[in-house]
Amino acid sequence: MENSFELLGISKKIENLSKHIEEKYRGVFESISDIALYNQAKVLKAFRDAEISQVHFSKTTGYGYDDIGREAIEKIYAKMFGTEDSLVRIQFVNGTHTIATALEAMLLPGDRLLAITGKPYDTLCEVIGITENRLSLKNYGVLYDQIDLKEDGNFDLPKIKEYLENNKVKLVHIQRSKGYALRKALYIEDIEEVIKLIKSIDKDIIVMVDNCYGEFVDKKEPTEVGADLACGSLIKNIGGGLCETGGYIVGRHDLINICAEKLTCPGIGKECGATLGQNRYILQGLFNAPTVVKSALQVAVLASGMMEELGFLVYPKADEKRGDIVQAIKLGDKDKLIKFIQGIQYASPVDSHVTPYPWDMPGYTDQVIMAAGTFIEGASIELSADSPIREPYVAYMQGGITYESAKLAVCQAIKNMMGE
Questions:
Q1: More confident residue, 51 or 179
Q2: Judging by beta carbons within 10 Å of its beta carbon (0-12, 13-18, 19+), is residue 26 exposed, middle or buried?
Q3: Taking residues 350-354, what's their average pLDDT?
Q4: Is 172 helix (H, G, I), strand (E, B) or coil?
Q5: Cα dist. 148→120, 128, 154, 173, 301 in Å?
Q6: Angle, to 10 degrees, between the axis of helix 403-418 and the axis of helix 334-346?
């Protein structure tokens, strides 16, 4: 009888390499499982405290007044993130929209935005005005500056201190995940240290963290170490592979109210927003999320270890601490990059017969190739891989609802890239 690898035409060489990496990094896998267990307990306690029942799965339409499921979800999110309030809505179309809503809510003409993790993710550039757009914050009179991370990927604390002592800043933006960059994702202790510095200089500065790809990677979230706001997408980590759309903002009660009024309109705020039958998916996805994130992290370790053994540079290495679920693999060759990402698509449960190619994608200045054979369109907590077509040709892989399926996909990608 054929084994699991033979069923997909994967060579014994690649199968043995995967088993070698699993054994070599057994301790790393166990550490990830320990974090998942803690976060599962955290989620369970929040559900119990909110007394979740079938009634919270009910559907509202139209205005969505008095949606008790939506209210329970937002209580749970606030509890999970250690915050006063939250805004969890399917009306957010993606993570960029969620982050943009928070920025636009907080910043008025003449206010200054400071990014301390360098240039933000590509899709935020038009929001801010780094890339020209007539509706950008820049064109509404918001000032912008950025301070790059140091070469080792850490905050440049002396530069941040000097800048804040000499300039009035309304909001500091921190991007936790690496995005399309070869740097480490930020650790919770990094974020805690820089927030303490910021608040020691000016306690009124709003610190906002783009938490996409970072939820449940550690035992604490950015808002538990001092962030005023944190934002993310429901079709990434925290949606557990079940949420069909939406985003969240968590933080101080007064700031959440302003964000709600930006999402809807002044005077309406959080009172409206039909859930259209999505409450159960949001709740069940959150409940599944710690285990799903565990799978994503473990397959990232596997991919990192296998690709390094094959001679490629990987960020992070298999045994390095992780601040997000993204695994970057420097392939250094356009053809290898395309074949690796196509291999992920071929091993996906949806659209495995489709071959992805680089194309012009809204919000990006370079063509992008994306493998996303997912049940939810674009859900990057399901296994996906993508990259802008530019040197040094780095594949960015993330997700994996189950470890087993994602493991097979990584092996398929390696097979496709190597032509074996």
A1: 51
A2: exposed
A3: 96
A4: strand
A5: 10, 16, 9, 12, 27
A6: 140
